[in-house]
Amino acid sequence: MKKKFSEFFKGYGMEITGNNAYGIVNGYETNAELNVMNNNYPLRLHISFYATDEQKRNIQTALRNAAIKFCVYQLTKYGLMLGLNDMTTGRLLKRLPSILDTVYGIVGENGGLDSGTCPVCGNLLDTEHSKQRNVEGLTLTLDDACVDQLNAVIDAENEDFKNAPNNYLLGFCGALVGAIVGTGIAVALFAAGFISSLSAVISVLLGAFLYEKFRGKPNKMMIVIVAATTLVFMLASVPVIYIVDAGIAAKDVGLDMSAIEAFKIVMEDAEVSRAFYLDLAMAFVFSALGIGVEIAYLMRRIKRNKNIK
Fold first, then answer.
1. What distance, in Å, lies between the first and last C-alpha atoms of the chain?
2. Alpha-carbon span 221 to 208, nearest angstrom
3. Other C-beta atoms lying within 10 Å of the C-beta of residue 215
4. Interhelix angle for 220-252 vs 270-301, to 10°?
5. What digits encode the pLDDT tens for the residues 23-49?
6. pTM of the entire predicted model
7. Distances (CA, A) of 45 to 13, 30, 122, 262, 264
8. Alpha helices of the chain — where are they, by DSSP H?
9. C-alpha–C-alpha distance, residues 246 and 267, integer Å
């Protein structure tokens, strides 16, 4: 964790481990994570507490009314997750004490129970029947009985997912639609003189979305099918563009031949041939970059929950 953030959280009595901080702040078990690679909300805070559904709705309403700048929030089954940012690190650090006072105040005023209770069931915690656990990257103190119940739910969900049909063909149809849309964007950009990863990114995201909409199972095979389909279509867009251009050029000079025949003729020109293979290579590189970025995102998204240890 960066020195200034580390010093800030140490001032609240939190322990620093790498880019994470953990401790009891204002009576609530609190986790902080700094991810400088996240340009949107590099600072993430999780405040653990138990609250009823009605109390959580009140907390959400109060947070919305507080209108904290550069802040997103989400109520979780364990409490409240905050994402924070500002124009500069200094400005964020300057605002943090006020933000924390506001948020902890809202949680407490609306009945959020403190660190002496389990955030899942609200029962009082004791050393014999509870302990700290690593849950989705957070350090949480949970009642043992709640952990058993949560693990039972996770096991049931994973078993249902395992037994669900793969529907590879239906999923491929969705990936195909995404690839066609991405190819259309690639062709438009190429016609404007650009070769970009953007079309591959859109193709993968749309393909994965439609893969699931077409009832394909969101697993590793989905990623393989979507990525492979996208790459094939992105590469195919280059010869398609050259063939169409060659056909148009042939007609412009009054030649009666197919676009493919015209393409074969122009490819005999060393300069055209070199440009073609260079564009093909560039399309591969940019497509691979775009696909690689989205594969990393999809791998995180399809990751199944594991038992809480």
1. 26
2. 11
3. 14
4. 160
5. 999 999 999 999 987 888 999 999 999
6. 0.75
7. 15, 7, 21, 62, 61
8. 3-10, 53-66, 89-109, 144-163, 168-191, 198-213, 220-252, 259-266, 270-301
9. 9
